[in-house]
Amino acid sequence: MIRLATSNDLDLAPFFFPIEAGWVMPPSGLVETVAGTAGEGVERLLAGQVDMALVGPAIYATNRDKLQVLPLPLLTSDIYSDNIFLISHKRLDQYDKPRITLPKTNLTAEGLIRVLAKPYYAFEPEFQMVSSELEALNAMTGTDTDMCIVSGEVGMRAAGPANTKGYFVEDLSKAWWLLVGLPIPLGIFAIRKEWIKNTADAAGQARQVILFLRNCLVKAKEQMPTLTEIEERRTGLPAEALAKHFGIQRYEPNAGHLRGWLEYYRRAAMVNFSAPLTEIDFFPSLGPLPAQPTGPVRRSQPENKPATDTKKRARDKAKEQGLTILRGGKDSKPDEEVN
After folding, report:
1. CB–CB of 245/169 below 8 Å?
2. Cβ-proximal residues to 253 (8 Å cutoff; 6+ apart), any chain
3. DSSP of 124-145, one letter per residue?
4. 49: helix, strand or coil
5. Is the dihedral of CA 207, 209, 213, 219 positive or negative?
6. Cβ neighbours of residue 250 under 8 Å, at least 6 residues apart?
7. Bridge partners (DSSP) listed for residue 34
8. Other CB atoms within 10 A of residue 260 CB
9. For residues 324 and 337, what is the distance between their CA atoms, to the nearest angstrom?
10. How far from each other are the two terminal CA atoms of the chain, in whole angstroms?
């Protein structure tokens, strides 16, 4: 018997709502589901109270001595996930050392912003950790926070209203893709090594769990109008927006997802966020992966030169042409003129 942590968190609905709705039944005598939030699933996994749960890549990296990873399915996208948002009071280029509030439980988001801060946003963040996504969002009403990071259902609920109220909203997974050119998995099914060690035919049972989870995803796709209608009533988010959100999710890995996953670890190690990790311990072993699909042309900020150098070259070129530059950046008033 494998104890599987399930959740009614919005992002995970294609995995677990089919179980709740009775569209798919867990294999008798093989899978016992343990309901809770996604965060509770991670806590229970690390405490040995469940044997398998969906975790972020940063959780796996910091607990590699205890965990292995199912080769599929996973939660990812080809370009952006539409569920990890950086919300700011001002344009991001107007900050040098912003104070960013984020939940201490979201290690993947913390790793993303630490990796993106200098090469992409050209700022050095100061972090303020809080206990939950909602607490991070509520911190924006005070004067001690310049930005917050929220994800999942809280992030999706907050992004639209924040835009209409004049806040600046960034999708961090899209920023990652623009910087690196690779997607990043945000959810992976991790298994306790202790369960593998103590279970006869653990590989065979893990494969049956993979088939079970795949069946859940198939039923979710078949019943997507019903799923989005029910989630609309529960969350208040429009069914059309939910269908679009689930439509960009991917569950079968390709070569690009694996490269993006390892690139995340490489860059996280460069900013001392995690130890270097050059391979992933899959169980059962990972077979050949399909190629990464061709994506749209991306425009990214240069990584080898600071943003200030780019601005200076633009100012110098304008001066050579006799143009007047209107500056509204970090160090000047919006209507300041520089000749």
Report:
1. no
2. 71, 72, 74, 76, 185, 286, 289
3. --EEEEESSHHHHHHGGGSSS-
4. coil
5. positive
6. 76, 77, 78, 183, 257
7. 5
8. 21
9. 7
10. 74
Structure tokens at 47: 């405490």
Residue of 7, 169, 22 lying closest to 86 (CA atoms):
169
pLDDT in tens, 50-68: 999 999 999 999 999 999 9
| N residues, the chain | 339
- β-pairing verdict for 52-55 and 126-130: unpaired
- CA 98 to mean position of chain CA atoms: 21
User: Which DSSP letter does residue 121 get?
Assistant: I
Which tens digits make up the pLDDT trace of 80-91? 888 899 999 999
Token pair listed for 246: 């689930």
| Residue 192, beta-bridge partner list | 67
- Contact predicate 50/4, CB 8 Å: yes
Helix, strand, or coil (residue 173): helix
Cβ–Cβ < 8 Å for 72, 98 = no
Give the predicted TM-score (pTM) of the model. 0.85
Question: For 259-315, how does the pLDDT look when each residue is reduced to its tens digit (9 = 90+)?
Answer: 999 999 999 999 999 888 999 999 999 888 888 888 777 765 555 545 455 566 666
What's the CA dihedral at 88, 89, 95, 97 to 10 degrees? -70
- Give strand pairing partners of 127: 100
Going by the DSSP 8-state scheme, the letter that residue 51 receives in this structure is S
- Separation between Cα atoms, residue 15 and residue 8, nearest integer Å: 9
Identify whether the C-beta of residue 298 lies closer than 8 Å to the C-beta of residue 177.
Answer: yes
